[in-house]
Specification:
CATH topology of the largest domain: Transferase(Phosphotransferase), domain 1
Low-confidence stretches: 159-186, 227-235, 535-543
Shape: globular
Distance between the termini: 59 Å
Number of strands: 17
Largest sheet: 5 strands, antiparallel
Strand order of the largest sheet: 1-2-3-5-4
Helix content: 25-40%
Radius of gyration: 25 Å
Number of helices: 14
CATH class of the largest domain: Mainly Alpha
CATH architecture of the largest domain: Orthogonal Bundle
Amino acid sequence: MKHAIPGYHFKTALGTGGMASVFLATQTSLDRAVAIKILNAKFCDELRQSSLAKQHFLQECKIIAQLNHPNIVQVIDQGITEQGMPYFVMPYVKCIALHSVLKRDDVSLTRKLDILIQVCSALSYAHRNQIIHRDIKPANVLVDYDGHARLVDFGIAGYFTPQETGSTESQMPHPPEASAKHAMVAGTSAYMAPEQRDSANKTSHHSDIYSLGALMHETLLGCPPNIASADKIKAPENDHSKIIPHLRPTIEHCLETLPQNRPGSVEEVRQALLLVAQGRHLRNNHWKLDSKRDKLPPNYQLLDVIKENPFGATYLVNDANKQRLLVVKKQNLDQLGNAPSCAMKLSHIRHPSLTKIYGTGKNQRVFITVNEYVPAGSLQERLSNTFSMTQWATLALQLCQALACAHSYGIVHGDLRPSNVLFAENNHIKLTDFGFPTHNYGLETHWYHPVGEEYSHLVDIYAAGAILFQVLTGFPPQPDWWGLKNHWKLRHYPKPVRKILLKMIASNPRNRIPSAELAALKFSELQESQETQISLEENQVLE
């Protein structure tokens, strides 16, 4: 069948499978190469017939398109053809699927670990944004010639009902919101969690973790697990590495029959891989040379590079003596701002929503801080999430309480933004990077810092309000000389919420809430009123 999608010029077929066909095309408006995946007709009958299924499909596509991670192939366009066939448009990258990589004899164990670590990073990020993949398998992991791995087909396995059952191809049901009669199997047989085989309605992030365990089994041990005897993991006879035995418990943990017995998050699996890899998967980083020059403790073992840029670097390290993970941040001396004095004060403060600083150091090149590792990512990575009012109020309260504590010691953050709000757990945040100057001096700076206003505790209050506005509405505030241009985005939220936020992001500092402590008090009162309302609603249901 010939395909025609306005704005795209089809060139050649890249591959065809049981689920979809992929084509190389040119996006005519930008003259760039793209890959277009068109789902096969046998998966689309229900979508044509059900407006509810079509609505869910389009909503899910919008969420998936917001996933922005280096190890995820981003969907840049989507739609439904005139023939009723869903399609996805992605940037074209020269790469091969992992199952083809695993057939080669020259792929080292280190490279395999690197690929698995990248897959974990992508999947962990997706789960933070409440996206379940549903079909983790080697065919959905693409690897380019530089060893960069990318996950594809997020969410597709949840939206279509196949015409035939019992196939080992990817099988796709309606979303969980659809009726029970559509709660069919989703996924690929060899990698599918037991509960996923029963019903798509039982699929959760734990199901992805099971599939990840199956992927690890095949990548490291040479074959998918035998589902009937998943607890009997055997390494290949020619495997003399000391690494594989250390990962067997992790693989077995992922392949537990009951979801609640598996790791609680993909991050746990990633940490296990990092501890085994011991930094061998990393290339072209400056840790080895710089750690000697900077006289870091010799027991600090590099696990991962969180960030390296012209201003400095941030590393994840293992403190073997105390068996804990730490974050070592190195910042060039000309990019310090008030960070040294802030870090010195914070090292003596313990607050549940402030990142612990265990030590600092300084030499002729860099300023160094050693922080606790906060494992669940940043708020920046969750901005595509939909937060309930209860979750939002909890976030707001912790944010303001953390600022109130810091301000009581004379510490001003100065660059508060979503990337500096970290999650220790799903609903527990910690603030980090106090006193460092901002490094992106673009048009978006004023979102979190009022134009022309000197650093002060009032700027922190503005930044906190801007972050909370963005989390609630999905958009950052847009101030101008006359006030807030997009204040109308708050119109559907309760009046107390609107009142607090607009006071926090008042363009005139004299009209702003004067202290983080007062803001925390207001959010505490708001949270109590919400809990009371929820309790009343529950009582009404019981009656």
